């Protein structure tokens, strides 16, 4: 008897456990349980702890209320220009009505896949290949609108539809790659030509600017060189004028005679005889008298006067430092003064000749030397 009682108690305990398991149902978060009583829909259990009648009520389906992502395999689609492309799609959807998703459609995932394929063929069939490759956003919006409208009665909301990939045939892909390569080569050639054109333009502009600057530099250089030559000529003329004045003054102050001229002849004779090519050289006719006078000067010194008679005419030497004329008028005055000094020196050296045409008039003679008198005896 005790053993039978223990078996009965064990069976009773097991029955209680099974009864509690059938009575208490725990629904996870974001899930919904569809309860049927004798095969007929009774109610929908929310998330959490729920009590049902055991052996009468049954949780037939457990519906996931979260957003789901389903990726469909590539499907061949024919475009408007009769090209077959493979398109992969991704669907983001969510169950909003567990009852409709359970009783309105047997397999809503398969239904969404088939509806996506048929809708995709309708949309892509009205586009050519280029439009299909560049109009993904338009295809996505068209698919979403059709799917959302068709799946509404199934208790499903399509949130987003994405085209994962569009693969044209290998021959078309090869042709497209060649076209893209040709376009890239064309753009590269265009960019290279534009770069060469810009380089040529910049080089020409640089050469132009260089030529302009060189011309300006040459012009300024010529102007400065001309000014330097002008100033050099002015200073050279002033120096020559002062040199002539100095020589002329020394001639007037020294009052030379035949002895000095003879001595100058003797000094010039070695220079006349210099050089291997000088085979013949001319002796001036006055050299005999000059040597005779030089001999007399060496013995009796009769050629050199003891006292110089008559007043000496001094010549104004001008300033010690040459003054550069600042204007053309001053330069003309300086040139006229130099020419006058040269004419005066020439007139003094050759008393018998007349002065230049510009200074025509009565000749001035040195009061110390009378042109009419004969030279002193040697």
TrEMBL record:
It is a single-pass membrane protein. Its main location: membrane. Residues 309-378 are annotated as: Disordered. Gene3D superfamilies: Band 7 domain. Residues 336-349 have a biased composition (Low complexity). It comes from the Bacteria. Pfam families: Band_7 (PF01145). Residues 22-180 form the Band domain. It is found in: Membrane. PANTHER family: STOMATIN-LIKE PROTEIN 2, MITOCHONDRIAL (PTHR43327). Belongs to the band 7/mec-2 family. This is SPFH domain-containing protein. It comes from Nocardioides aquiterrae.
């Amino acid at each position: 008897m005790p053993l039978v009682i223990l078996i009965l108690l064990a069976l009773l305990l097991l029955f209680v456990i099974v009864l509690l398991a059938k009575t208490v149902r725990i629904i996870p978060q974001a899930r919904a349980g569809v309860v049927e009583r004798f095969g007929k829909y009774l109610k929908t259990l929310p998330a959490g702890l729920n009590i049902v009648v055991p052996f009468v009520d049954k949780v037939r389906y457990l519906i996931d209320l979260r957003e789901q992502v389903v990726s469909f395999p590539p499907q061949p689609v024919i475009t408007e220009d009769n090209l077959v492309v493979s398109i992969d799609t991704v669907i983001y959807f969510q169950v909003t009505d567990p009852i409709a998703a359970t009783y309105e459609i047997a397999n809503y995932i398969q239904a969404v896949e088939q509806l996506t394929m048929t809708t995709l063929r309708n949309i892509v069939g009205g586009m050519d290949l280029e439009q299909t490759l560049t109009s993904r956003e338009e295809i996505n919006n068209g698919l979403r609108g059709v799917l959302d409208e068709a799946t509404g009665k199934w208790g499903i909301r399509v949130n987003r539809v994405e085209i994962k990939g569009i693969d044209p045939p290998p021959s078309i892909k090869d042709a497209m790659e060649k076209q893209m390569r040709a376009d890239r080569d064309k753009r590269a050639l265009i960019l290279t030509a534009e770069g060469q054109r810009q380089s040529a333009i910049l080089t020409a502009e640089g050469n132009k600017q260089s030529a302009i600057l060189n011309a300006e530099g040459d012009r300024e250089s010529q102007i400065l060189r001309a000014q330097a030559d002008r100033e050099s000529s002015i200073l050279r003329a002033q120096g020559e004028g002062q040199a002539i004045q100095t020589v002329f003054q020394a001639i007037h102050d020294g009052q030379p005679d035949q002895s000095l001229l003879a001595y100058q002849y003797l000094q010039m004779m070695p220079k006349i005889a210099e050089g291997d090519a000088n085979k013949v050289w001319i002796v001036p006719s006055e050299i005999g008298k000059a040597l005779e006078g030089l001999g007399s000067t060496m013995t009796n010194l009769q050629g050199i006067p003891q006292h110089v008679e008559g007043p000496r005419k001094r010549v104004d030497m001008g300033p010690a430092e040459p003054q550069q004329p600042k204007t053309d008028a001053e330069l003309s005055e300086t040139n006229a003064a130099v020419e006058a000094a040269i004419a005066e020196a020439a007139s003094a050296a050759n008393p018998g000749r007349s002065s230049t045409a510009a200074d025509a008039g009565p000749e001035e003679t040195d009061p110390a030397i009378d042109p009419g008198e004969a030279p002193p005896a040697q």
